Amino acid sequence: MDDRRKFKRYIVAGAIFGGVISLTISILMDTIYGDSLQGTWRDAIAKDLNRLFSLSVTSDSLSVIIVFIFILAILSLFGSFMGVLFILIIYKFFNLLHEK
User: Fold this and answer.
1) Model confidence over 15-44: pLDDT tens digits?
2) CB atoms within 10 A of CB 53
3) Given this model, what pLDDT does residue 12 score?
4) SS3 sequence of the chain
5) Are 42 and 68 in contact, with CB atoms under 8 Å apart?
């Protein structure tokens, strides 16, 4: 039962690490490359909402912030999934090496 508990801890750690890393990279890319790409993600979301729904929202409005948080949550979930896959591969590899 100890191996199963250790495996669950590794999976949770991989999910947390992957989610935090993907969220950090996403936010850093938005802030670093925002000027060179002619705007941030919030500016792009505001333009899309204005074009699709004929709304007159700015990049600081509540609806843009909600959509931005939703997009960051999706990116964080994808990063968590990739972290779990990475930990699974590493765990299986080291178990294969550890077996006699």
Assistant:
1) 999 999 999 999 999 889 887 878 888 888
2) 9
3) 95
4) CHHHHHHHHHHHHHHHHHHHHHHHHHHHHHHHCCCCCCCCHHHHHHHHHHHHHCCCCCCCCHHHHHHHHHHHHHHHHHHHHHHHHHHHHHHHHHHHHHCC
5) yes
Per-residue burial over 31-52, b if 16 or more Cβ lie within 10 Å, else e, is: eeeeeeeeebbbebbbeebeee
Q: Which residues of 2-29 are buried (b: 16+ CB within 10 A; e: fewer)?
A: eeeeeeeeeeeebbebbbeebbeebeee
Q: Which amino acid is at 34?
A: G
* pTM of the shown model: 0.83
